[in-house]
Design goal:
It is found in: Cytoplasm. Beta-D-fructose 2,6-bisphosphate binds at residues 471, 528-532, 566, 573-575, 629, 655, 661-664, 735. The chain is an alpha/beta fold and 780 residues long. The chain is globular, with a radius of gyration of 27 Å.
Length: 780
């Protein structure tokens, strides 16, 4: 991108006006999107207006449409719901209402509309756009607007952001609010699990999702539910017998509870609703279990948005402003959304059409088609869920292999979920699965035992590492390790861990030259809060750490808002990797985030202090600065604290906070549970194939580069990459990948904190088509 284009972003909006509204059901993270639209709009020189109470406010006009300022969106980021209000609106469905709405916009010179809502709200926006010129003609004929005004507002640009907790919008991987709704559900499932275990109860939990089973499905994956009912895939006709059999089998395996998840729109093959009460009565009459129903209802819409939703809302808000200001009369109304971790623009009506097609397919009882239309990610969730829940582990061990699973490095939330799915998928395949305690050290010392099905029962929701984990590398104990590989007949190794897991993998590859025993396939599943493993955009545990930092920053900001004129300096973990500091900065609304990857000088520190001095003159009298633990040897947290304290004398107080090891603990978030579960399943499937490939003359001999891989998420797909190929992409001294995707989100952080910088819109989302997106890639 050239310097001229850089400069263009700052002037892109001059003379333009944008209105932003939230409509339909509220969703956590809408406020983050509104805040980003306002601030980026102002940054480009545009005027931005809030429309209060959704479309109703657009129709009623008057005080409902108010100009927004930079400060008016302060402290909004961490609030759930929508601050500018949302209302169901009958008037806008009628042409008369849309006529009044058009009049209100033209009078204020607003020709750009950003709508945050569900598919209904977005369809309404598209109708409005297609009628625009007719509406203007009518207004001009009636003498309500002048020819001059009509000419100035000749076309209306519309961009949609999908805010819906159901994740029911086709074309987007995640809608704003979905992740937070999952957080609410999982908090409750975890709480219910403890009481159900005390009393040996069965719990039926009903979650939202009238036409979409996403929440129910991911919840079931994340908590290892015994059964899930979703509208897209009704159970077989004899489901009552099957369900009761499954529940009693779970009990005989030693479990003290059963959990059944029901989407509110669950139906049977004939389209007849299956209610939570029906299920309860069935279990009570047939099995006599003590059964309780919990309907979650509006709790799922409430509470503070998760880190993921804040970042999603902020990124989508930025992209929406760009799409609006670059729009021409010929560009179709688009939705901005996320695919993998990339921002994409999709034609609004194509997405709405596919979303409607799903509902129609379900109405016509074409359930397979409904599943396909939901996309790869949904299907993937369903397949893994079915594998982990619906299969009786095979009794025979004929033709089976022996695979060992271990944790390496520092603990990360979600490691146990990965171990659980690896062990269970291994058992389902008929393999013998061993677990190794305390990493490579345990492998050398022979701290190895066989794991059965119930060994990993209930592990999904537990933080830390149940197997024990150590940073020790394998090289110095190759002899003992080789001896144990032979002794326990280990034919494949699944290594779940951080940077040491990867470097350990490289050492195993080297060791193959001397020790034949090391010639067995291995796969590394990245699990570390630092998210610094080469070959993967995300690692298990980073999302949980991010949420922990976020919650803490929220509390600190609240304290600072009370005392006024206070700046907090917070040190985050991550080694040399600035992922946590940057993403937490985006999610918590920080003024600056110091990281190793973006070197800073005393002049930058001076600019930041000056920026805070200016900020104290506004109504927002508080500051939040994040510093990655190893961002600079000399500019330590203490140094920065002392500098700020000195320079801020008489203007603001400074305080410092080192977050420390709380970032490695806690119960894993829904994202980490789900991600870890799918990575474990995928790794084990690969492993069986690789072992079969390497079987020669009665033994395993794997000596090719592709028999030692890292399984990572890259952009939109889960891929296996040989560890030796990742060597070139690694900065070993600082234990980070040479290229990191999240660095391109740094400009957004600065703009939202009101820095005059060049917005590099090089992370440019071009308009894609939904049909092409369908088949092309596998998302997690």
């Amino acid at each position: 991108m050239t310097h001229e284009e850089h400069h263009a972003a700052k002037t892109l909006g001059i003379g333009k006006a944008i209105a932003v509204l939230t409509s339909g059901g509220d969703a956590q993270g809408m406020n983050a999107a509104v805040r980003a639209v306002v601030r980026v709009g102002i940054f480009t020189g545009a005027r931005v207006f809030f429309v209060h109470e959704g479309y109703q406010g657009l129709v009623d006009g008057g005080d409902n449409i108010r100009e927004a300022t930079w400060e008016s969106v302060s402290m909004m980021l961490q609030l759930g719901g929508t601050v500018i209000g949302s209302a169901r609106c009958k008037d806008f469905r009628e042409r008369e209402g849309r006529l009044r709405a058009a009049h209100n916009l033209v009078k204020r010179g607003i020709t750009n509309l950003c709508v945050i809502g569900g598919d209904g709200s977005l369809t309404g926006a598209d109708t409005f756009r297609s009628e625009w010129s007719d509406l203007l003609n009518d207004l001009q004929k009636a003498g309500k607007i002048t020819a001059e005004e009509a000419k100035k507002s000749s076309f209306l640009n519309i961009v949609g952001l999908v805010g819906s907790i159901d994740n029911d919008f086709c074309g987007t991987d995640m809608t704003i609010g979905t992740d937070s709704a999952l957080h609410r559900i999982i908090e409750i499932v975890d709480a219910i699990t403890t009481t159900a275990q005390s009393h040996q109860r069965t719990f039926v939990l009903e979650v939202m999702g009238r036409h979409c089973g996403y929440l129910a499905l991911v919840t079931s994956l994340s908590c290892g539910a015994d059964w899930v009912f979703i509208p897209e895939c009704p159970p077989d006709d004899d489901w009552e017998e099957h369900l009761c059999r499954r529940l009693s089998e779970t009990r005989t395996r030693g479990s003290r509870l059963n959990i059944i998840i029901v989407a509110e729109g669950a139906i049977d093959k004939n389209g007849k609703p299956i209610t939570s009460e029906d299920i309860k009565n069935l279990v009570v009459t047939r099995l006599g279990y003590d059964t309780r129903v919990t309907v979650l209802g509006h709790v799922q819409r409430g509470g503070t948005p998760s880190a993921f939703d804040r970042i999603l809302g902020s990124r989508m808000g930025v992209e929406a402003v760009m799409a609006l200001l670059e729009g021409t009369p010929d560009t179709p109304a688009c939705v901005v959304s996320l695919s993998g971790n990339q921002a994409v623009r999709l034609p609004l009506m194509e997405c709405v059409q596919v979303t409607k097609d799903v509902t129609k397919a379900m109405d016509d009882k074409r359930f397979d088609e409904a599943m396909k239309l939901r996309g790869r990610s949904f299907m993937n969730n369903w397949e893994v869920y079915k594998l982990l829940a619906h299969v009786r582990p095979p009794v025979s061990k004929s033709g089976s292999f022996t695979v060992a699973v271990m944790n390496v490095g520092a603990p990360a939330a979600g490691m146990n979920a990965a171990v659980r799915s690896t062990v269970r998928i291994g058992l389902i395949q008929g393999n013998r699965v061993l677990v190794v305690h305390d990493g490579f050290e345990g492998l050398a010392k022979g701290q190895i035992e066989e794991a059965g099905w119930s060994y990993v029962g209930g592990w999904t929701g537990q933080g830390g590492s149940k197997l024990g984990t150590k940073r020790t590398l394998p090289k110095k104990s190759f002899e003992q390790i080789s001896a144990n590989i032979t002794k326990f007949n280990i034919q494949g190794l699944v290594i779940i861990g951080g940077f040491e897991a990867y470097t350990g993998g490289l050492e195993l590859m080297e060791g193959r030259k001397q020790f034949d025993e090391l010639c067995i396939p291995f796969v590394v599943i990245p699990a570390t809060v630092s998210n610094n493993v080469p070959g993967s955009d995300f690692s298990v545990g980073a999302d949980t750490a991010l949420n922990t930092i976020c919650t803490t920053c929220d509390r600190i900001k609240q304290s600072a808002a009370g005392t006024k004129r206070r700046v907090f300096i917070i040190e985050t973990m991550g080694g040399y990797c600035g992922y946590l500091a940057t993403m937490a900065g985006l999610a918590a609304g920080a003024d600056a985030a110091y990281i190793f990857e973006e070197p800073f000088t005393i002049r930058d520190l001076q600019a930041n202090v000056e920026h805070l001095v200016q900020k104290m003159k506004t109504t927002v009298k508080r500051g939040l600065v994040l510093r990655n633990e190893k961002c600079n040897d000399n500019y330590t947290t203490d140094f920065i604290f002392n500098l700020y304290s000195e320079e801020g004398k008489g203007i603001f107080d400074s305080r410092k906070n080192v977050l420390g090891h709380m970032q490695q603990g806690g119960s894993p978030t829904p994202f980490d549970r789900n991600f870890a579960t799918k990575m474990g399943a995928k790794a084990m499937n690969w492993m069986s194939g690789k072992i079969k490939e390497s079987y020669r003359n009665g033994r395993i001999f794997a000596n090719t580069p592709d028999s030692g891989c890292v399984l990572g998420m890259r952009k939109r797909a889960l891929v296996f990459q040989p560890v030796t190929e990742l060597k070139e992409q690694t900065d070993f001294e600082h234990r980070i990948p040479k290229e990191q995707w999240w660095l391109k989100l740094r400009p957004i952080l600065k703009i939202l904190a009101k820095y005059e910088i060049d917005l590099d819109t090089s992370e440019h989302a071009h308009l894609e088509h939904i049909s092409r997106k369908r088949s092309g890639e596998a998302t997690v």
